[in-house]
Q: What sequence folds into this?
């Protein structure tokens, strides 16, 4: 995650930020704070946000102290801090943005122009904003079926623009979404599996042939048990598998070979 509101810092402040973020990467949430507090006092918005994150993680919740850090960052235009304020119910507590109905809308208003102007970091932020605005269990099904969502479109654009975090997340979503349906189809005979390969090409999953070729002679139960252990599918597997069965049974022949 990158700051959308960063500017060149004095050398000593930048050094403190680098050390603070290094400790953040090591999950040293207490040790990192003195370094980032220096940066926050110097006006670095990203440091304010990560101080809120550290406080939230240490407190295991969106405490008042964490929300205060998020509010400071949000007042300087940080969309990620705005999303945290929404999640913490800041408007219920009386801390609402002046020109928006809630903090999600405020994040959208400030980030969309930057994303449309071609800023990859803003594009990635748009993914998170729309993921919050359009949050639904059906989102998993849309991703699985390859139906574009507003969040997914921005994530793909950020990935295509070369942003590493976006590329990693886009790849994980695309891979996990397609693998559920292909693992289900892998239980079928090779002729039918070939149809799945063609279907998967439509869904932009060119690696499907590898999965189908390995799993095509296994039973549905065996394929399912092996796949259920994959961490990407611990939460989403049931939705993916149900949607996969429905989709394939609608499109492909129903008589098992």
A:
């Amino acid at each position: 995650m990158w700051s959308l509101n960063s500017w060149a810092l004095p050398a000593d402040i930048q050094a403190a930020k680098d050390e603070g973020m290094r400790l953040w990467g090591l999950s040293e949430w207490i040790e990192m704070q003195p370094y980032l507090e220096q940066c926050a006092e110097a006006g670095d918005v990203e440091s304010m946000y990560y101080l809120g994150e550290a406080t939230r993680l240490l407190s295991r919740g969106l405490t008042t102290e964490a929300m205060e850090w998020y509010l400071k960052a949000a007042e300087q235009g940080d969309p990620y801090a705005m999303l945290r304020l929404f999640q913490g119910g800041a408007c219920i507590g009386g801390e609402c943005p002046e020109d928006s109905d809630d903090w999600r809308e405020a994040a959208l208003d400030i980030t969309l122009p930057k994303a449309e102007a071609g800023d990859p970091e803003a594009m990635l932020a748009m993914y998170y904003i729309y993921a919050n605005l359009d949050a639904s269990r059906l989102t998993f099904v849309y991703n699985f079926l390859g139906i574009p969502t507003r969040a997914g479109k921005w994530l793909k654009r950020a990935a295509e623009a070369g942003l590493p975090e976006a590329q990693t997340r886009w790849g994980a979503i695309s891979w996990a979404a397609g693998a559920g349906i292909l693992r289900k189809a892998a239980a079928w005979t090779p002729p039918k599996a070939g149809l799945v390969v063609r279907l998967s090409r439509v869904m932009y999953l060119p690696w499907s042939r590898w999965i189908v070729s390995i799993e095509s002679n296994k039973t549905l139960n065996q394929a399912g048990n092996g796949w259920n252990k994959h961490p990407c599918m611990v939460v989403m597997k049931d939705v993916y598998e149900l949607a996969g069965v429905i989709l394939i049974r609608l499109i492909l022949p129903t008589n098992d070979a």
User: Anything to note?
Assistant: The chain has a mean pLDDT of 75. DSSP finds 14 helices and no strands in the chain.
